[in-house]
Each structure stands twice: as C-alpha cells, then as structure tokens.
Amino acid sequence: MTKRQSLTGQPGSIAKLDLNLITLFELVYRHKSVAKAADVMDVTASAVSQGLNRLRAHFDDPLFVRNGSRLESTAFAENVHRSIADSFEDVLTQLQSLSPTVAQSQLNIICPPYLSLFIFKPLVRIVAEISPQCKILHTPDDNLEETTDKALTFRKADIIFDLQPHNMHSRISHLLYNEELVFIRAKNHPRISGFASSDQLSKEQFTVLNSNKFSVANVQDEINARINAVRDIRFRSGSTFSIIAMVSASDTIGVVSRNLAEMFSDTFDIGIVETDISIPAVPVYMVYNKFSLKNPLMKNIVDRMVEEFT
User: Which residues form the HTH lysR-type domain (predicted)?
Assistant: First the structure.
C-alpha cells in the first residue's frame, strides 16, 4: 500500500476528503460536543453536524455516539485521534509560525488571577526591558482544562501559567516553582484558633476551589485522605479570592497558598491554621508552544522568566 493509500485505506480517497474536516474532527473529539466545536470554529452547530456526517460517510463509522450531554468517541475515532493528534498540532504551529513576528506588539497571557499577583511583577518588568512598546493582554484562567488547551492550539495565548503541565508534543511546560498551601479561617472563628488537629478539622465545614484540573483534584483528595474523612463542603467557588471572602464571612475552613493568605490576612481578617496535616504543594508551570521560540521576543521573555524563578 502506498503512503497515499495508507491515509484512509482506499486508493485516491484522500483527494475526496476536505482537510478542514480534520480540524472539525479534532475539536469534536477534544470537547465531546458539537456546540463547543462550532463555537471554536465560529460556525453553526448545523455546519459541524453536516461535517461530521461527511466524515462518518467517508470512514464508514459513527465516530461519535451521544452519551447524555457528551459525545463519546468510538474505537475507530480513538485510533484516528492517536494517528493525527501530534501531526495536527505541528501543522498548526508551523503554519502560524510563518506569520511575521519580528515586531510583536501584544503578549497574550492566560493566568489565574491570584497567581498574577506573583507572576506579573517580574513578567511586566521583563517585557518592559525587552520591548517597551509591547502591550500585555491578560485573560483570567477559568479553571477549565479544555479552555486553556485550545487557547494555545489556536494561538489565542502566547504563554499560559497553569497548575498542571500540558503533555503535548508541540508544547513546553516549564516548572517555575511550587506553591505551599495552608488552611485558613476567619480570625473570629468560634472553634479554631492558631492550631488545629486533623480530628478537629474533620468536624468543620469547608470552602473549596471548584476546578476540573487534575492537580487541584489530587490535592483535594489528599486532604480528605490525611484528615481521614470526606470533608463537609459548604461553599464551592471557581475563584480563590471568593474562597478567601467566604472564609472571612463564615466559620468554614479554606485552602489557599501561604503567600496569598499572608498577603490578605489583615484585609480580609483571616488567619492561617497551623496543623499536623501536611498539604501537598501545587506546582506552577509556564506553558507555551515550541515554535513560539522562533520569535526573538518570546524566547527572551521565556528565558528571563526561567532565570527569575530559578
């Protein structure tokens, strides 16, 4: 079988396949949703459905089967994804790298708001020193892994500061540092003051970060294991700042970074709970596309940020 034949298993059939459908396939695969794929491609859901029907006819396979609100991929679709995923990323980044980048006028950053308190001070200084005319656009991280993933894939972000690595062939995930986490309480908490044992904490209600990122989920599972109880969750929020506000206004216990707790101790009237429980640290990664390093500005910024946190 020739290379041309091996692409689809049918001689000459690749000529009949609209290669835009490969992008459509990957977006439906990643988001498990026709509507989300349509949103990313800026087309109607009907157009995506029609494209899927063409792919189904081409491959003679259903590819995706509805399971509740999600589309589950068939075994054949899984094989297609494994075959094209890395190449798809490489083609996108190589094509985008052909765009003029010598005089980049804007740096697009995705970063959780609370991390920006510690990331932006060195970042802004570095950008100002390297390219004073370069503007910075910050998009807050919404705690959804799929959103940050597609932002790098489609170059809506140059750098993402994230709590987990992006394990893709076309990306670099550089560990900047580890965030120490602590329990926090309102200073006027009726039962917890300076120190609390695991038994005391197991009887309290908690405010937790609402996130689908595995690094956050792992920490929450570890805390449950070390308290030796499934915590009673009273509040959930996708914002670390909201967690601090909720803790200060109630008798719940929260978990945030020590740096943040110390910074807002007086402003929000909160205190750190010292305990015999060891909370796992959370890593902070700087994530970017490999091909973006061809841009001198990006390479200088990345190198300087690595030096800053080494």
Answer: 17-74
